[in-house]
Amino acid sequence: MLVLAFDTATGVATVALVRDGAVLGERLTAAGRLLEDVEALLGAAGADRTDVEAIAAGTGPGRYTGLRMGLVTARALALALGVPVAGVSTLEALAAGAPGALPVIDARRREIFTLGPGSCVLRPGELALEPGRLCVGDGAVRYRDVLETAGAVVPPDDDPRHVPWARHHAGLARDFGPAERVEPIYLRAPDARVFPATPGKL
Questions:
Q1: For residue range 42-63, what is the model confidence (pLDDT) as tens digits?
Q2: What are the strands of the beta sheet with 135-136, ordered from one edge?
Q3: Coil vs helix vs strand at 128
Q4: What pLDDT band is residue 195 in, cutting at 50, 70 and 90?
């Protein structure tokens, strides 16, 4: 099965084309360039959009705007191509790329997203770590000092284990189905708020 996989939940987006477990191509990209890189991967693999049989999309947690862009793209492509979609946690994909490591994503507001059990959001200093625990992800890079002081091991900033590579989304994807079933993992409310209108004012 030819699976198109991508994740746009963090500061770096990734996209991959995977057939029956074999990676045909993979790229680091940006959420705004996702479709352009999808076309490039398909062309390099000698494939067409109509050859795609399923989509695996990152569901976060992560940056609100990037996450929404990725899931909207997944739904639009699934509708256009008539293929099923599976959502995959960005944290679980990070963990798959570094077996035994704790995935840590920068949640901004001086917080991180990590696995807890389950996905959770907390301050870096609240993370309970056993000495020598490997931590990966952009949150581990940003809060390196805090995590290393707590006993964690954080690879160098440019280590590829900090990236949620889309190939792992394809490998973890299960329960493919209608695109509308795939929901983002937010863990907290967005920064934007809707306030009631004041009578007589715009």
A1: 999 999 999 999 999 999 999 9
A2: 119-122, 111-115, 102-108, 135-136
A3: coil
A4: low
* CATH for the stretch 98-160: 3.30.420.40
Residues 6+ apart with CB under 8 A from 1: 19, 20, 53, 54
Question: Among 135, 107, 136, which residue's Cα sits nearest to residue 123?
Answer: 107
Pick the CATH number of 2-90+163-181 from 3.30.420.40, 3.40.430.10, 2.40.240.20, 3.40.50.300: 3.30.420.40
Model-level pTM? 0.90
Query: Judging by DSSP bridges, how do beta strands 135-136 and 54-58 pair with one another?
Result: unpaired
User: What's the confidence (pLDDT) of residue 116?
Assistant: 84
